[in-house]
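name: query_chain
kind: protein
chains: 1
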Amino acid sequence: MATQVQSYNNTTGTNQLSAETATFYQTAMLDRLLPELVYMKYGEKKNIPKRSGATAQWRRLNSLAVSTTAVTEGVTPDAVNLDITAVTATVQTYGAWTKISDFLDLVGLDPVLTETSELMGEHAGESSDTVVRDVIYAGTNVQYVNGKATRATITAADTVKAIDILRARRTLKRNKVKPINIPGRGRGYIAFVHTDVAMDLMQMPQWEKANVENAKSDFVDGIIGKMYGVYFIEVDNGMKYAAAGASGADVFATLFIGRGAYGVPDIEGSSKPEIIVHGAGSAGSADPMNQFNTVAWKSVFATLRINELCLVRMESGATV
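structure:
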C-alpha cells in the first residue's frame, strides 16, 4: 500500500522533507494503519480512471432458468431473455487533520510528528473500515439465532451455536454463492465475527474439534479458525447493536460473505490513505507567525453491496 507523505515550503513550493524523513513518517503511519483495514481488504476493487467521473458500476448477468423441455425437431425454440442487474456507487472524500504548535519544535518536534503520524494512520484505518462496515452490515439478508424472529427478542443467552452457522452456510449455498479464494488458505466463505462472539465460538465442542491446529497458529491474517467451510475473521470493530435486544441486551452481528458480496471502488488507488504534513509557515498569511504544523490524512472511495444474496447477517447475543 503506497501512502504518500507531503510537506510544502511556502517560499519554494517544493517538498521540504528529505526522502529519508518522508519514508520514516510513511512507515510510522502504516504500522498502525494496516491492521485496521479488515473489511476493506475483502471488498472487490474497481478502479475509476481520473477525469472519468465519480461513479463506479458493477453489472452482472443473472442466472437463467434451467431448460428441461426437449427441442422439437425442425422447430426453433423461443430465445431466452437476458437479465442484467447494474449497481452503482459514487466515491466520496474522507479525512481528518490536526494542528501541532511550533513550540513543540523547541522541545523536539520529530517525535511528536512521528507519534501524530502513527495516530493519524490508526484513525484513517479505523474510520475507513467503519465506513465499509456500516454499509455491508446493512444488507437485507438477516437471520436470528435460536429461532428468534426479531432483534428485539434476542437475549444475552442467545449465543451462536453450530446449527446457526450451518443455517447461514446453507443460505449461501442455496443462493449459489461462490466461495472466496483466500491466499495461503484455500477457498471458503468468510464470516466477520465480533470479539465477544468469538469467545463463544471458541468454546463450542464442534469448534475445538475442527480447529485442533489452532495452538500452532499465530493468526497473522486475522483468521481464528474454520468450520463447515467458513473462515472466521475476528474484528475488534465488529457490529454491535447496543441495548437493542430483550431487556436491554446487546445484540451482535456476524456477517457471512461469499464472492461478489461487496465492492470498494476508488479513483486510481485513492482509497489508500494519504498522510499530509505541512510545516509551520507553509500556510503563508494564514499562519503569519509560523506557529503551526499540521498533520492530516485523506482518502477517496465508496462502498456498496454488489449482491444481497452473497451476504448473510446473523444476529445473536454473546457471553460478556
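note: Residues 141-261+308-316 form a domain with the hypothetical protein PF0899 fold fold (CATH 3.30.2320).
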